């Protein structure tokens, strides 16, 4: 019997826009083709990618196809997920091509080395293991924790936002202390662990239960189960020797295309002030422009995103100024709700939040989440 995705038998035409989930898409075939090797390495892919897989919904009724776990589709060949056989931990698998991102494996493993991994200030995604692909000398798989986007679920309190800012500044300070410039800090490259999700979530849809996509993924708030935030994706990152003096690098544009020093010049730039801009612009666009009640960060962020790189503070100066800002915030302010600027029923949510705050006080939950 031919495996799904390899049959040449004509199938009935589907309506435009409808995906035939009984067949593996080309991007999925990569994972199916490497399933046995990954299993031998100690990592089990989801049932959909086991050779010989047959859709579990065939011949069944009462549920939508999308409510079956094995109907969920990986959209690319560079990021996959698996279960570590030794302990059942969920992990992310990232395929790195050295011909494209020649420094990524080196820098990611350096930042996750034994000497640095246990440092509480380290917010670089841990690398559990590197797997050299047996059929492609150019590619390595990085085995990492199973993380989710930093913004989902939403921030709810000033204290939760302060915790986010503090962890990100701490993490960038750690990288710069070890002479690594990230060079691509953006919305896509900040993530968080699954502390809020006791039963995890589905890798193809963060809002759904891992094993039963017909159910929402159960979760707590950031205040109740504080997450740890991580920087990921070191494909553009570089590590420098301080003996060589301030580095100058050719322009490489990451996800954020707005860097002032990249706009009208191709001259080499010091990547460390550019990191400060990336970090400040991330906070400005993804947090301050989205949520109300965080005006206390505006002055610091404005300095971080100045057009002249020489006028931006170093990350040590940023951390010092943020510490002063944080100490000035009282308990009532920290427990207050931050609504989205576009919300409609803000007053109703503000009233409901009074009871949430009271619950947190009774439960002994700190106004700034602590792990």
What tags apply to this protein structure?
single chain; about 375 residues; alpha+beta; Phosphorylase Kinase, domain 1; Transferase(Phosphotransferase), domain 1; five-stranded antiparallel beta sheet; three-stranded antiparallel beta sheet; 10 strands; Protein kinase domain-containing protein; Kinase-like_dom_sf
Number of domains: 2
Helix content: 25-40%
Average predicted confidence as pLDDT:
93
Shape: globular
Uncertain runs are 1-16
GO molecular function: ATP binding; protein serine/threonine kinase activity
Organism: Piloderma croceum (strain F 1598)
Domain Protein kinase: 68-356
GO biological process, one term: mitotic DNA damage checkpoint signaling
Brief summary:
With 371 residues, this protein is α+β, with helices and mostly antiparallel strands. The protein is built from 10 helices and 10 strands.
Would you mind describing this structure in some detail?
- The chain has 2 domains: 19-146, Phosphorylase Kinase, domain 1, CATH 3.30.200; 148-196 and 220-362, Transferase(Phosphotransferase), domain 1 (Orthogonal Bundle), CATH 1.10.510.10.
- The protein is 29% helix and 11% strand.
- The protein is built from 10 helices and 10 strands.
- The strands form 3 sheets. Strands 1-2-3-5-4 form a 5-stranded antiparallel β-sheet. A 3-stranded antiparallel β-sheet has the order 6-8-9, covered by helices on one side. It has a two-stranded antiparallel ribbon with strand order 7-10.
- A hairpin with a 5-residue loop joins strand 2 and strand 3.
- Helix 5 packs antiparallel against helix 6 (271-288) and helix 6 packs antiparallel against helix 7 (298-304).
